[in-house]
Amino acid sequence: MRNILLIVFFFSAYISKSQNNFDNYREDQFYVSVYYNSLGDELTSFKENKFSTSFNLGFIRDIPLSKSGKFAFGFGVGLGINSFNNNLKLSSDGSNTINLLNNRDIPKKNTFNFSELQLPFEIRWRNSSSTNYKFWRIYTGLKYSRLISSSYTYESNSDVYKLDNIPINIDQLGFTLNIGYNTWNIGLYKSLRPFFNKKVDNFPLELEQFKLGLVFYIL
């Protein structure tokens, strides 16, 4: 992770230094996003239960690539808080064994939670200017995430327990696409790495994160 941060820092500094002939117009932005979370449907009998959410906030530094400012890179840092509700049950004995519950066995609570540090990189296009604040945008790129904490909570009529440091991949990487006009933007995230790590027993690792929601940029 340290190497990634160093590469981003020096690359940003190099591009910024080479922009002396560009206008001062930038789209440095704080962002807030709310997503519907999913782990895909690669497994037979896998089902999402209730509503899984992802809440994210952060800041992106804009680095124009053209004098007009319509093309740019974006490097940022943020925080994400995620929950997944489905029929995957993590055993209470710490063995990292996962089972698929059938519909009749769905408990009151069966939730995977985790928080993450996010480092987004975007290639940006927008038809904006220093005087036009309402514009179309298409931002696409990659987002690297580093797990900060994780937990699993199970609650049924007969059993209640909570586990920390569950077997989720510490390092996540995904493709991002944000398209919208002015304040309202549709955001998409597709993971390029499995959700669970190799510590999971008796369970395939095909599941990957998919998120769809709204992204708000604040100047």
How are helices and strands ordered from N to C?
Answer: HEEEEEEEEEEE
Instruction: Determine Rg (CA atoms, Å).
Output: 20 Å
Q: What is the terminal-to-terminal distance?
A: 28 Å
Average pLDDT for all residues: 84
The number of helical elements comes to 1
Count of discrete domains: 1
DSSP strand content: over 45%
Biggest sheet features = 8 strands, antiparallel, barrel
Question: What strand order characterises the main sheet?
Answer: 1-2-3-6-7-9-10-11
Please explain how this structure is put together:
By secondary structure, the protein is mainly beta. Helices cover 7% and strands 52% of the residues. The protein has one domain. An 8-stranded antiparallel beta barrel has the order 1-2-3-6-7-9-10-11. Strands 4-5 form a two-stranded antiparallel ribbon. Strand 9 and strand 10 form a beta hairpin.
Short description, anyone?
The protein has 219 residues and is mainly β. It contains one helix and eleven strands; from the N terminus they run αβββββββββββ.
Furnish the topology, listing elements before pairings.
Elements: H1 2-17, E1 29-38, E2 53-64, E3 71-85, E4 88-90, E5 98-100, E6 109-126, E7 136-155, E8 160-164, E9 171-181, E10 184-191, E11 210-218
Antiparallel strand pairs: 1-2, 1-11, 2-3, 3-6, 4-5, 6-7, 7-8, 7-9, 9-10, 10-11
Notable traits:
single chain, 219 residues, mainly beta, 8-stranded antiparallel barrel, two-stranded antiparallel sheet
